[in-house]
TrEMBL record:
Species, as recorded: Branchiostoma belcheri (Amphioxus)
Domain of life, source organism: Eukaryota
Gene: LOC109470851
PROSITE patterns from the UniProt entry: LRR (PS51450)
Keywords: Leucine-rich repeat, Repeat, Signal
Protein name: Leucine-rich repeat-containing protein 15-like
Length: 517
């Protein structure tokens, strides 16, 4: 155990850890002031410009030199700490990682070189001294390219982070020797082009992040060597289309993110091999049309071991219609997002969601809907949250939401609703509803709440007009307050708090249930 009495000045010693961070040290403490049993030495945020060869620390397992001013790693500066397993050099000023930088560290497992100014890397090619390395972090540097010899000397690597560099080119086969690589981060670079050999040999890869690059096209079968892939992120590129063979062979993929591209076309059967896909996100693209053929392969099917798609995100596209057959096979969907499209009431066929009996979250916000009926929403027997704000509704008929017996949250803000907008029975059968948002309502009769025994919160907004209906609403709120508070006092249950505030013509109101004290 490290004893505090032998701890160097401006350092703290506890257990087998010696912490000399934030002490203004220009180098390591003298060897006689570092207990021989020290396993972790923290030298973060000091004034070190180079890494001294001494002191000799044979028992050291982890060394952190984070946020110093180190510029070079020449002449094997770590060879007197041969048992190091973790080395942290992030946040320094290193420009070149020379070939002998880590000589002597044949037990090193994790190496952090992120947040430097690294332009070239020579230490991990050929017969690398760090052949035992399993995790390498090079994010937030200034690398511009990856060549076929860059990582040939670290065959045991399982995680590689190259994000937030200036990488524009990757030579074919650059990762081919990384047979055990499971995680590869390449996001926030300048990558323009991929080929069928970019990811050659990555048979163990499970997670690949390529977001925030400049790719406009994906070659056919570009990921065909990565059949173990489970997570693929291609957000914020310039991809314009998805072909039938773009994702061929990805039988184990569970999550695919294609948001914020320029995708206008998804060929029929493009996802047919993705039999284990749970999440598909295509938001913020330029899709104008989808069909049942778009999602072939994503429905539950015992013959192909398909478990069925659970989340589908299609918000911020240019969809105008949803037909009965479009989602009919996606019976395992639990979350569906169709916000910010151009879907009209005429384009939304009755029964379009009739087979989605497992759906719990559904949003159609900011479309061009003028009306909605129970027939539109039939089949959504498990739905808990429905968001319809920002449309062009003219009103809601009786029992418009009657086919949603489990609904807990209903959001309808965005229109200047009057008393005539809501039939007195509009919320009939919503016996589970707890939260109702009708912001921008100008007037409302309290009769609309008579079918809502579980209602806890109503958002009225701040545009209520002082008329006869608002007076009735005020009386109803006050009645709820006293009646439910008395009930809560006697039965230790919930009660209602209501307020109406404002001046002049407009008022705002809230209605909430809270515990009575």
């Amino acid at each position: 155990m490290v004893s505090a009495q032998y701890c160097a000045r401006r350092c703290r010693c506890e257990g087998t850890t010696m912490d000399c961070s934030h002490g203004g040290h220009p180098g390591f403490p003298p060897e006689d002031l570092i207990p021989s049993s020290t396993e972790t030495l923290l030298m973060n945020d000091n004034r070190m410009i180079t890494v001294p060869l001494g002191p000799r620390l044979p028992n050291l397992l982890e060394l952190s030199l984070e946020d110093n001013w180190i510029t070079t790693l020449e002449r094997s500066p770590f060879r007197l700490r041969p048992n190091l397993k973790v080395l942290r050099l992030e946040g320094n000023k290193i420009i070149h990682v020379v070939r002998d930088a880590f000589d002597g560290l044949d037990k090193l497992v994790k190496l952090y070189l992120n947040r430097n100014n690294i332009e070239t890397v020579d230490a991990f090619g050929g017969s690398s001294a760090t052949s035992s390395l399993e995790m390498l972090d090079l994010q937030r540097n200034k690398l511009e390219s990856i060549t076929i010899g860059t990582f040939t000397g670290i065959p045991l690597l399982t995680e590689l982070n190259l994000s937030s560099n200036n990488i524009s080119t990757i030579e074919d086969g650059s990762f081919s020797g990384l047979k055990k690589l499971r995680v590869l981060y390449l996001h926030s670079n300048q990558i323009v082009r991929l080929t069928n050999e970019t990811f050659m040999g990555l048979s163990s890869l499970k997670r690949l992040v390529l977001a925030d690059n400049k790719m406009q096209n994906l070659p056919d079968m570009v990921f065909s060597d990565s059949t173990a892939l489970e997570f693929l992120d291609l957000i914020s590129n310039g991809i314009s289309q998805i072909t039938q063979t773009t994702f061929s062979g990805l039988f184990n993929l569970t999550a695919l993110y294609l948001d914020s591209n320029n995708i206008s076309t998804v060929e029929d059967c493009a996802f047919r091999d993705l039999v284990k896909l749970h999440t598909l996100s295509l938001s913020n693209n330029t899709l104008q049309d989808i069909s049942a053929s778009t999602f072939l392969g994503l429905a539950p099917d015992d013959r192909t071991d398909s478990t069925g798609l659970e989340e589908l995100h299609l918000s911020r596209n240019r969809l105008t219609a949803v037909r009965r057959e479009d989602f009919a096979r996606l019976t395992k969907l639990t979350r569906l997002r169709l916000s910010v499209n151009e879907i009209t009431s005429e384009g939304l066929e009755d029964g379009s969601f009739a087979n989605l009996g497992n759906l719990v979250y559904f949003t159609l916000r900011r479309n061009l809907l003028t009306n909605i009926s129970a027939a539109t929403l039939q089949g959504l027997t498990a739905l808990q949250t429905l968001r319809l704000g920002g449309n062009e509704f003219r009103g809601f008929h009786a029992f418009a939401f009657a086919n949603l017996p489990t609904l807990r949250t209903l959001s309808l803000p965005g229109n200047p609703y009057s008393s005539n907008s809501f039939h007195p029975d509009v919320f009939g059968n919503l016996t589970a509803l707890q939260y109702l948002d009708i912001a921008r309502a100008t007037s409302l009769s309290p009769r609309v709440f008579r079918h809502l025994p579980c209602l806890q919160t109503v958002q009225f907004g701040n545009s209520l007009t002082c008329d006869c209906d608002i007076l009735d609403l005020a009386k109803w709120l006050n009645k709820q307050l006293w009646m439910l508070c008395d009930m809560a006092h006697r039965h230790s249950q919930w009660f209602a708090i209501s307020t109406i505030r404002g001046g002049g013509q407009f008022f705002s109101a809230t209605f909430e249930r809270k515990t009575c004290r």
